[in-house]
Amino acid sequence: MKKGVLLVKAFIIILVLMLAFTGCVVSEGEGGTKNTAGTSGKVIENLNLTGLPIVNEKVTLTVGGPKSNDMADFETMWFWQRAEEKTNVHIDWQMSPEEGWKEKISLIFFANDLPDIMMGGALFNTMADKITEYGTQELIVPLDNLIKEYAPRINEIFEQRPDYVKSITVPDGHVYTIPNIMEDKNISGQVMMINKYWLGKVGLDIPKTTDEFYNVLKAFKGKDLNENNKDDEIPFTFCYNQGDFRTLLGSWGIMENGNHIIVKDGEVIFSAIQEEYKEAIKYFHKLFAEGLADEESLTQARKIANAKIRRPARNEQIVGVFQGWSLKTHFGNIDLSDFDYVMPLTGPKGDQAAFLLNPQTSGMIRKGGFCITKANKNPEISIRWADYLHDEWVSWESYYGQENKHWKKEDGKLVMLDLPEGVKEAQWYSTDNPRNFSFTILMDFYNRQNVQAGDLKLEKDHLDAVYGEYRSKTFTTYPDALFDSDEINVAATIGVDINNYVNQTVANWLLNGGVDEGWDEYVKRLVEKMELETLMESYRQAYARYNKGTK
Question: 191-342 domain in CATH 3.40.50.20?
């Protein structure tokens, strides 16, 4: 009888141990222990750790996220159809329009109606704080161990690019997302362009200083330069709400990001309370007051501005100076001899600097291009699928499209084919491939494959080289640091209120004037009533943590 009791106890102990080892898989990162959703033994058996297909028996994963309206249906897209053929992983697409995505993603997580995977170029765009929030709430799972065990390509990328890892590591020490990386990404951002045909008609050259710029706009105003017998000429238009204004501030010895937080000589400062900022506002108010700047610049969306700009025929041109990515982006593959670029203007005190994207992490297009949710029962398969997407050739085709249609191999080179006449870039690529979705293309690939850029890319590369000569020696953009929960709360409350107040106040000063009279009270309100210093301390803490490295 005693022997039988001992056998029963031994059986129970063995059973408990078996259950423990077949339960959830646990990832122990430096920030603590997280449940990574686990899988059953059957799924592991179905998984091929290397090579293709990823699984022997087809598995379906649900994928949600934002999708541009320009993109074709993913169900019929060449790239995704081939991905399924290669991996044996079927995707049930649950995509949403990019418009309104910020509200949509909050609803998805609030309702706990989660797909297995969330991905997309705009997944966490302008809301990287959500990565920390959803990660610490265990709504998305840490990827650290999954990447090390099942994603050799992504792991290799992370080892080669520690700065990228710093940018996506949340304060608890974990990585919850895989970024989109394209190291051939241009850094010159929005640049100023001018109607050279109009310049010829008024007998002036491309302006080099802020005074010359003012004189050019004065010369454009009130003249029938398009010869259509209408008073429809707009000397200067831009998009204040899309960040164009900040690209012009280097002429006054100040730079800024969209939230007005910038790094000057290694110190985090708030640009919109600096005296140089006030002087820039006074100059641009003069342009608005004299009808030289388009009043709609303060409210218009990019598509509205583009509708004014994209008129290549001389009798249809209504804009003299405008901001944009490049001339070919605006007008396509046509004769562009009527237009040219304006280099950063020299300001009243000799300042001259271009706003450039962060050179340290400019190759990281989005820090949150892919994540696995807590609903996922197949995280190992999912991370292997992500690893397939970040293969260098798969990534190349994801962004640049099909061989012999969008590019070709020729004499040891990869040659980009020009856009068909009259076809815009987004339209050309969006039918076959998802472009900025989930991929990595390192500069080493461009060099090894001897990539020969098409006309549009060559144009922007040239702008990078030219504008790069005007890089500020004093200012750098604030890095892609991730905040902890307290810092997120400060940015989401105090930061939002301050940003809204500054943007509204500055827009009013640009249009109606009064910056000299209202400046002291404006700064006082920010500092004493709106807790600007609390906001700045949060950004300084995150900046220090980023520079130190969290891993």
Answer: no
How much is the CA Rg of the chain, to the nearest whole Å?
Answer: 27
* Residue among 479, 441, 535, 536 at smallest CA distance from 166: 479
Tell me the CA distances in angstroms from 508 to 210, 285, 382, one per residue in order.
Answer: 22, 9, 50
Q: pLDDT by residue (tens digit) across 23-32?
A: 333 333 333 3
Strand ranges (E), 380-486 = 407-410, 413-416, 440-441, 451-452, 475-477
Q: Give the β-pairing of 451-452 and 413-416.
A: parallel
Fold assignment, 26-184+364-399: D-Maltodextrin-Binding Protein; domain 2 (3.40.190)
296-307: pLDDT as tens digits: 999 999 889 999
Query: Which residue's structure tokens are 């000589």?
Result: 265
Torsion of CA 262, 265, 269, 274, to 10 degrees: -100
Is residue 31 helix, strand or coil? coil
Residue 370 β-bridge partners? 119, 178
Question: Do residues 406 and 435 touch, judged by C-beta distance below 8 A?
Answer: no
Does residue 13 contact residue 4 with C-beta atoms inside 8 Å? no
* pLDDT averaged over every residue in the chain: 87
Rounded Cα distance, 428 and 319, in Å: 26
Which residue is associated with the tokens 């960040």?
A: 243
Domain ranges of the chain: 26-184+364-399, 191-342, 477-548
Two tokens at 42?
């059957």
End-to-end CA distance of the chain: 57
d(CA 330, CA 529): 43
Q: How many Cβ atoms sit within 10 Å of the Cβ of residue 240?
A: 20
CA 370 from chain center: how many Å? Answer: 14
Residue 154 to residue 389: CA distance in whole angstroms: 10
Contacts of 465 (CB under 8 A, 6+ apart): none
